[in-house]
Amino acid sequence: MSHVPHDLHDEFPGQAAALHELKEKNAHFQKLSERYSEVNHEIYKFEAQIAATADFTLEDLKKQRLHLLDEIAALLPHK
């Protein structure tokens, strides 16, 4: 599969070390990261027309992704 847009490293450039450390040491972050990846891949499949879905389903997934990003951002150190 090609690069899936909006992965966490795209969303938080320059935070690779912090993302890695959280993934290693924070179980809550691990769950958020895994869920974010799942939701993001679903969105990608629909936007790339690999799979079909209703518009409201896609919009709901995008809202979930934004909510997860907010939760993840709160765990990252602020610069």
Explain what this protein looks like in three dimensions:
With 79 residues, this protein is an all-alpha fold. The protein has one domain (17-75). The chain contains four helices and no strands. The protein has helices at residues 8-11, 16-25, 27-47, 55-75. Helix 2 crosses helix 3 and helix 3 packs antiparallel against helix 4 (55-75). The chain is elongated and about 35 Å long. The mean pLDDT is 92.
Structure annotation, total helices: 4
Structural class category? mainly alpha
Q: What is the number of domains?
A: 1
Q: How many DSSP-defined strands?
A: 0
How large is the share of residues in beta strands? Answer: under 5%
Which whole number gives the mean pLDDT? Answer: 92
- Main pleated sheet: none
Question: Stretches where pLDDT falls below 50 for ≥5 residues?
Answer: none
Order of helices and strands: HHHH
List the helices and strands and how they pair.
Blueprint: H1 8-11, H2 16-25, H3 27-47, H4 55-75
Helix pairs in contact: 2-3, 3-4
Defining key terms:
79 residues; mainly alpha; 4 helices; 71% helix; 0% strand; elongated
Short description:
This protein is mostly helical and 79 residues long. Helix content is 71%, strand content 0%. It contains four helices and no strands.
